[in-house]
């Protein structure tokens, strides 16, 4: 068990002692459904079982598979393989258009079945979730029996086509890493005594919480493999990450339980798979901005403020880039857009070489650090704000709220203009938007990703 440092290092900025508690035994079961979208297709269409199946996000040969069944993989077909290429590699392949509503429906059935065995701790995405074992279930043999009962229950009560990999470990992060070890249909136990050696060959960027930016900073500190990462001190992790997230990561990695922050709604955001016409960086940026404007409108609808923005970009055929920016609590879409554009600039600079081919697979934007007006955290934050900025921010937020109202109910506002309304503004144009965003309707912008919550690397740390 690692040494807990001086208690002062465990206090947050308000002086509260943070709770990192050492965990005894296998406290978490993490489940990851294998090739989930393809699995649901095989579940619904028994004739597809045992056959190569891919799921396409759109009805187009130019898009890439968003899931590939394990039977498709010996052909060299995986998530990200172009549909037309998959047909060449395996002429017999079944190409199924995505049915995200159905994937969410089946997700609910799966969660309900597992909840007959264990309480749900957290849903990470439509095909990943963590469950909590009671104190009496955490011993290895018992935990394995519980996991086997979960697998049996899923096969018998939902369906055998939906296979999963389960990890059992002292923390959610370790349980997730354990689940990754054996696919498909794995059941892997990871105890503290197995570490670091049993993960020694795991690439650092495979670990949730180690994005490309953190990996680069780790490399600059001479940390290039799991064992070296394991051996750093929590303080050092904090310094390398540049935030308390590093310390949280360290504790989860070493099997400590890390309390979730108490916010009910912790983030608001949207995600899109990019169709061909939006996969060039400039087009993708407009999509990201539209997603952000939509998230910001929801933020104001909930009377909330956000203090950071994250942007993640998936590249084709694989890889990705993610970044987050902090700012004073705000509702101002202009501030958010500026922050997004800054990050987009960094992305372009950082990935200039890869972007020569210029193909982006998807974009996700999230507003984080949410709080309501009147929350202590907002008031605290105000102390650090420059008065001019605060004033301007408030006025701009009011402007955006007015725009939200018009967009939500165009008729009520334009009614005041009397009957000239119909002459000057046909219904489809009674929307207020930024000129740069004109002509982009998110409802027609390719497939939504069927994540009830999009898996965010950072989520594993809270
Ligand atoms: Mg999966």
Automatic annotation (TrEMBL):
Signal peptide: none annotated. Residues 28-211 form the UmuC domain. It is an enzyme of class 2 (transferase). Pfam families: IMS, IMS_C. GO terms for molecular function: damaged DNA binding; DNA-directed DNA polymerase activity. Belongs to the DNA polymerase type-Y family. This is DNA-directed DNA polymerase. It comes from Hyphococcus flavus.
